[in-house]
Design a protein that fits this description.
heterodimer; A: alpha/beta; six-stranded mixed sheet; four-stranded antiparallel sheet; 10 helices; 10 strands; 23% strand; B: mainly alpha
Chain lengths: 264, 256
């Protein structure tokens, strides 16, 4: 039987940018963690870089439609997500890996990813295949039927990545995804992210400059809730001079742009 | 939609034969919008094309066999709801033993007084950050919001109502007294939850019930007027009003 692509897959997109924020302000508790952000993200891998407390997690959570922006506009896949609107269409095309993600310890990897696929309203007949594929892509196929509580921290994080990519998201949001991965897994993860970034918008929040150098096509430097710099890794490296602090060109560029805020 | 192209023009389009430009454009424009004709095109694709697409589809296929799924219960209640169920059973047991220890004349009080508020406590537990470890993951999914709130509320009611019926039957508290108030309080809690968050709404409802109904009933004794069968029409109206408010404000539940 021949297969044909569905109407949804050949439909043209109705937006210029996967993520577009104008004057975005998002509150995290009492502080305004994202304060007047203008940002446009298209296809590719975007490394969200900034010192601790810069507002990276708050920004990712508002992109994931978990937090409601205090003011400004935020459009994901061309539809506004700032007001009291129906978010289901946008959420179906999202993949999100939170920084500390909780899970049900008694679930196996497969049950966990299947449950998330169900929550993402994937068509019933696609779920078993998509789950198997996601689990294979993160290299957990041989542990797919083990309970999550028996896995190591790095494996749990890979299960988290599997649930984020199970629905082939248009916008994939990964908050500190490389924490807890060993060097070999990190390399494999970067390959996977590059692969995903070739046809979707991947936002990776990190504080590791080497992650950005290896995997990202675009760097978003973020401090005190504002955009400091957006450009390619090469442009970030070019911003740094020999006098700036750091061991690599990217680190020198980072410290040149962030300045005193990056130190403690 | 335009008329479907002939089998011949689709075959020629697939094989890359010369087609008049106007036919070519018409076929192409039609294929973009017609899934049936895309399938017809796929059926007549020449071997070199099918070989290529087969390789691509094979690359997308999972290599292992997908296994059967279990844990369907999670669709109705979070797995972390079990401790809450134990707590509910304990509360009901406490109410029952209270009724046995302090025999009152006529209708028993404790089970009756607690019955309308027990599901509300369950609803709070079903939708709270503290009790659902995967909360952060769940709230970013399309099913989060009213649908999941209702599913979990339903799960709570399915467990709690039979328990209340059994407990009430033991001490002689007829469901005629508490069933409507029970459902009405749950509906109002959900409606209020759309504004201030389900957990806060449940706490508010529980406190209001304790102060306005349980307190006076303990002081005065007997069955309070709000639980008398005569109040049923009022409770029915409250139930309908609460349910309507929930339906009309369904978008508000997307971000709780």
């Amino acid at each position: 039987m021949a297969r044909a692509v569905s109407a949804a897959e050949v439909a043209p997109t109705g937006y210029a940018w996967q993520v577009e924020a104008r004057g975005l302000r998002v509150r995290a508790g009492r502080t305004m963690a994202v304060d007047g952000l203008d940002l446009r993200l298209g296809r590719g891998v975007h490394g969200l870089l900034g010192p601790n407390g810069a507002g990276k997690t708050t920004l990712i959570r508002s992109l994931a439609t978990v937090l409601r922006p205090a003011s400004g506009t935020l459009e994901v896949l061309g539809s506004p997500v700032s007001g009291r609107v129906d978010l289901r269409g946008v959420r179906r095309a999202l993949g999100y890996l939170p920084q500390d993600f909780g899970y049900y310890k008694r679930f196996t990897v497969r049950e966990f990813v299947e449950y998330m696929a169900w929550l993402k309203e994937m068509p019933k007949r696609d779920v078993p295949g998509a789950v198997q594929r996601a689990v294979e892509r993160v290299g957990l196929a041989d542990r797919a039927d083990d309970r999550l509580k028996t896995l190591s921290g790095g494996m749990v994080r890979r299960a988290g990545i599997a649930q984020a990519i199970v629905n082939d998201p248009e916008v994939l949001l990964l908050d500190e995804p490389t924490a807890g991965l060993d060097p070999g897994q990190r390399v494999r993860f970067r390959e996977l992210v590059q692969e995903l970034g070739s046809d979707s918008c991947v936002v990776v929040s990190t504080h590791l400059v080497e992650d950005v150098a290896a995997a990202c096509t675009d760097v978003v430097l973020f401090d005190k809730g504002r955009l400091v710099f957006q450009g390619t890794p090469d442009e970030l490296a070019a911003a740094g001079g020999p006098d700036d602090v750091g061991d690599s060109p990217l680190e020198r560029g980072y410290s040149a742009l962030i300045g005193e805020a990056g130190r403690w | 939609m335009s008329e479907h192209p002939t089998a011949d023009s689709i075959a020629r389009y697939a094989s890359g034969d010369d087609l008049p430009a106007d036919v070519l454009w018409a076929v192409e424009a039609h294929l973009e919008s017609c899934e049936t004709c895309r399938l017809r095109l796929a059926d007549v694709a020449p071997p070199q094309v099918t070989a290529l697409t087969a390789v691509v589809w094979a690359g997308l296929e999972p290599t292992g066999a997908p296994a059967r799924r279990r844990h369907r219960l999670a669709r109705w209640a979070t797995p972390s709801l079990l401790p809450w169920l134990a707590m509910t059973a304990f509360v009901l047991l406490a109410a029952l033993s209270l009724d046995w220890l302090l025999p009152t004349s006529g209708v028993s009080a404790a089970v009756l007084l607690l019955a309308p508020i027990v599901p509300v406590l369950g609803v709070a537990a079903a939708w709270s950050r503290g009790m659902d470890p995967a909360y952060e993951l769940v709230v970013s999914t399309p099913r989060a919001g009213l649908q999941l709130v209702l599913r979990r509320t339903f799960a709570v009611l399915v467990v709690v109502l039979p328990a209340l019926l059994a407990g009430g039957g033991l001490v002689g508290a007829s469901p005629a007294y508490w069933l409507l108030p029970c459902l009405a309080v749950t509906a109002v809690t959900l409606a209020l939850g759309g504004v201030i968050g389900v957990r806060r709404a449940a706490v508010a409802a529980a406190c209001a019930w304790a102060v306005l109904v349980i307190g006076p009933a303990v002081v005065v004794g007997g069955v309070p007027g709000v639980l008398a069968p005569g109040a049923a029409p009022v409770w029915a109206a409250v139930l309908v009003g609460g349910a309507a408010a929930v339906v009309f404000r369904s978008a508000a539940y997307a971000r709780l």
